[in-house]
Amino acid sequence: MRTSSLVLCAAxxxxxxxxxxxxxxxxGGTGGATTSSGAPEAGGSAGEATGGATGGAATGDTxxxxxxAAPDKxxxxxxxxxxxxxxxxxxxxxxxxxxxxxxxxxxxxxxLEKDAPVFMFEVVMPPKVSMLLPRHAGLDVYGLLIxxxxxxxxxxxxxxxxxxxxxxxxxxxxxxVNIYSKEPTRLILAVVVNGTSGSVAxxxxxxxxxxxxxxxxxxxxxxxxxELSAKPDLAWGGGAYHARIALEEPPASFxxxxxxxxxxxxxHVHDKEWEFLAIIDGSGELVRKTSGKVPVNGSTxxxxxxxxxxxxxxxxxxxxxxxxxxxxxxxxxxxxKLAEGGK
Length: 343
What we know:
Radius of gyration: 20 Å
Strand content: 35-45%
Helix content: 10-25%
Number of strands: 22
Low-confidence stretches: 1-12, 20-31, 36-62
Shape: globular
Structural class: mainly beta
Strand order of the largest sheet: 2-4-11-6-9-12
Distance between the termini: 17 Å
């Protein structure tokens, strides 16, 4: 394989996390990421899954041994998610409905990271119950259904409700909505700081202290809903990587990333953006330089901090399916550039 082909392969693999090669500008000039050292770490990064195809290219080594085969191609259709394993951060709404006065369940508060601007957890709802979420001027709520059907209700929604089915979702700026399940439903809920600084933990503390300024009288932006099936399938890497971007405006992007069973992501870094993942299915290992390794075996939450090198090494037995968020948005724009190039 010629050196130019090796470089192309490395770039395609890195881009699965919105990355770019060291020194290269990000797509659109925002949200760039770079490889931390120009090459994946020996024996520790996801890049070794592609052997010389990534390691040799990143270092400019033209003496690399026979490169490993390219990752398998997968279908770009939306994956099946209803049988996903339970997530470790999980809240079950009772038969009479539920109320989350702090937006985060009491049992999960201890898992809030003091500096993280996003907190994700799974919600399970029986049919025909309501979950009430209070108003908070400093927090938005994002959601994506793994299975089921629901309506997001609020007096200031023009149609009075936003409906969502499996792999549909919503964003409620300022929270302050009633989520009503029409059938047994599972969803991933993300509580998101709607500014450019601060943490979810700090904003939850305002609710706990009954800070009246935490509420709002007029929502900062309308409640919106989306269908992932209506979003373009952005494919690259010979069809081994697929992304659908549902939301890309601040405070956070929100989308679905799918990768074939042997598709890695080489070590790279986002200089300014947090990356949050709810890995619905997949197996392997997320390798983070300073925060440690995260074993992945379906239904896994993970976060990559700004400036922290990270990589993903797949186990090779099943595709990876993950909700992916960037706070603030930016790195996801690279997926569009790759898809436009037909790569």
